[in-house]
């Protein structure tokens, strides 16, 4: 029996775009598909639509289930649904798998119409700006002229910020959770180590592993293990695992001894069984390249001059990957432009993953903000 506060059983939908999309890297996708899901109903004024943007390993499957198996729940099931903070009795919620993804939208594993083979390494580098441009076309397809809100955590929050810059009249509220205006050198370093794990895997075959019938499983596994460490906080790992030993005593070998090792290897193996290595490379590069202030000589305030939306910016005290200071940089730039900004720093022990957790304070804040969004077209 599924949770009555869930949107229930859902099905993804696919839309094909034949209009070429010019990418920031200078290349063009002649045609492409986007996979998306919707929850709730679009009101007659088409003014209650909310776009949820996913983070690095997310997808269009934001809420609901594909079967009675609770393991098929969407990645933000605790946030989106009837009576939940993003209430589908009030909002029409859209989740989309970004270009370059591996959950149905056109990406490296898709067939290149020009060659009849998977794109593989030939798939172009995509950026946050490219994703926002493609999402705008999806909005056109759905008949949505303006989003009531664009919401996202981490890389998804970066997309919400980019929406406010690139399409200022098409978003009334931008909600950026556990995000940053650009990556620090340390974050870029983490991403590069993860990419090197994949690129140096013998089964990677320069990105064309599909034609060899193999998967660079070891590289993906290591990349995910490294990434997962950065998503957690020291306190959360200590509380959950401490120095617990699987066998109760030291074995003086190289196999798994500590519970945290077992957990990380499990997460790595699970991720490598379903995520595409080329997509992982693309997503981390999109993170690296995100820097709206870059064209303005590093002036973030200048980057946000076009913005007209109201903003909710949320950070978490234990998030050392995208620290609260990075969110405060965003807030300052928004206030410099005299924009309507709400900022909250939530006390949490869960690190960067806090935006995915069902924290009462965090959810109450999200609920209060969403309830105050005017779905008649105003703020």
Please tag this protein with its features.
single chain, 379 residues, alpha/beta, Rossmann fold, Rna Polymerase Sigma Factor, Chain: A, 2 domains, 8-stranded mixed sheet, two-stranded antiparallel ribbon, 15% strand, homoserine O-succinyltransferase activity, acyltransferase, AB_hydrolase_fold, amino-acid biosynthesis
Q: Describe it for me?
A:
The protein is an alpha/beta fold and 379 residues long. It starts with 12 loop residues before the first strand and ends in an 8-residue tail after the last helix. The mean pLDDT is 95. It folds into 2 domains: 13-182 and 293-372, Rossmann fold, CATH 3.40.50; 187-284, Rna Polymerase Sigma Factor, Chain: A. Helix 1 crosses helix 2. It contains 10 helices and 14 strands. The chain has helices at residues 128-142, 155-166, 185-199, 217-231, 234-240, 259-272, 277-289, 300-303, 324-336, 360-371, and strands spanning 13-17, 21-22, 28-29, 32-39, 49-53, 80-81, 86-87, 92-96, 111-112, 117-118, 149-153, 173-177, 310-316, 341-346. An 8-stranded mixed beta sheet has the order 1-4-8-5-11-12-13-14, with helices on both faces. The longest helix has 15 residues, at 128-142. It comes from Pelomicrobium methylotrophicum. Its EC number is 2.3.1.46. Homodimer.
């Amino acid at each position: 029996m599924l949770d009555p506060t869930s949107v229930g059983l859902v099905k993804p939908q696919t839309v094909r775009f034949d209009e070429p999309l010019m990418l920031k890297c200078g290349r063009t996708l002649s045609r492409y598909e986007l996979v998306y899901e919707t929850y709730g109903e679009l009101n007659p004024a088409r003014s209650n639509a909310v776009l949820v943007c996913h983070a690095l390993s997310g997808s269009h499957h934001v809420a609901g289930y594909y079967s009675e198996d609770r393991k098929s729940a969407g990645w933000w099931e605790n946030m989106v649904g009837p009576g939940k903070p993003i209430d589908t009795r009030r909002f029409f919620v859209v989740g989309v798998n970004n270009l370059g993804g591996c959950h149905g939208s056109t990406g490296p594993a898709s067939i290149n119409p020009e060659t009849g083979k998977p794109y593989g390494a030939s798939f172009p580098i995509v950026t946050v700006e490219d994703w926002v441009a493609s999402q705008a076309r999806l909005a056109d397809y759905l008949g949505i002229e303006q989003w009531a809100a664009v919401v996202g955590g981490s890389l998804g929050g970066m997309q919400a910020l980019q929406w406010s810059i690139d399409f200022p009249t098409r978003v009334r509220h931008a909600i950026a959770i556990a995000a940053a205006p650009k990556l620090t050198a340390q974050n870029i370093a983490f991403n590069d180590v993860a990419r090197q794990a994949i690129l140096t895997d013998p089964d990677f075959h320069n990105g064309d592993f599909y034609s060899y019938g193999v998967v660079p499983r070891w590289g993906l596994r290591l990349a995910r293990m490294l990434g997962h460490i950065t998503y957690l906080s020291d306190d959360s790992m200590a509380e959950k695992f401490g120095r617990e030993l699987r066998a109760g005593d030291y074995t003086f070998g190289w196999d798994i001894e500590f519970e945290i090792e077992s957990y990380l290897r499990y997460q790595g193996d699970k991720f490598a069984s379903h995520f595409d290595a080329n997509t992982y490379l693309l997503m981390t590069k999109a993170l690296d390249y995100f820097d709206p202030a870059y064209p303005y000589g590093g002036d973030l305030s200048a980057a946000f001059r076009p913005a007209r939306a109201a903003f909710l910016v949320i950070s978490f005290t234990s998030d050392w990957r995208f620290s609260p200071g990075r969110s405060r940089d965003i807030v300052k730039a928004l206030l410099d432009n005299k924009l309507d900004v709400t900022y909250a720093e939530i006390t949490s022990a869960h690190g960067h993953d806090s935006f995915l957790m069902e924290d009462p304070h965090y959810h109450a804040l999200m609920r209060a903000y969403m309830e105050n969004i005017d779905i008649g077209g105003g703020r």
